[in-house]
């Protein structure tokens, strides 16, 4: 009788744990925000935003730095060399990131030299529109 009780208790705990994991993962999806809404309190969070490319810079180490604008507010999007090397495999090229194009980016909000930036973690975090 006691073994049956322990078995049922373990089963209920397992179901409860799986349910909690499922709903927790749903809550962790990136928050969609406009560029003007991004602030220093968001550092460390993953967000999705959209804007127009107003500046593109390439670094000799293979990095690309985009400046996105939404209204009057701008934010930096560094695309580091490890992602740049994989662009063609993902159906993108450097030319896809020209000024005037709109992109949606998902990434980690970070602070660098007193400015906010969104750092994409994988190429699927960058969608050219």
Write up what this structure looks like.
The protein has helices spanning 2-27, 81-84; strands at residues 31-32, 46-58, 64-70, 73-79, 102-112, 115-119, 126-128. It has 129 residues and is α+β, with helices and mostly antiparallel strands. It has a single domain, classed as Nucleic acid-binding proteins (OB fold (Dihydrolipoamide Acetyltransferase, E2P)), CATH 2.40.50.140. Strand 3 and strand 4 form a beta hairpin.
- Give the biggest beta sheet: 7 strands, mixed
CATH C-level name: Mainly Beta
Oligomer: single chain
Form type: elongated
Spatial extent as radius of gyration: 21 Å
| Number of structural domains | 1
Q: For the terminal residues, how far apart are their CA atoms?
A: 63 Å
CATH fold-type name? OB fold (Dihydrolipoamide Acetyltransferase, E2P)
Question: Uncertain spans, ≥5 residues at pLDDT below 50?
Answer: none
Helical residue percent band: 10-25%
* Number of helices, where a helix is a run of at least 4 consecutive DSSP H or I residues: 2
Top keywords for this entry?
alpha+beta, 7 strands, 129 residues, single chain
What is the compact description of this entry?
The chain has 129 residues and is of the alpha+beta class. Helices cover 23% and strands 37% of the residues.
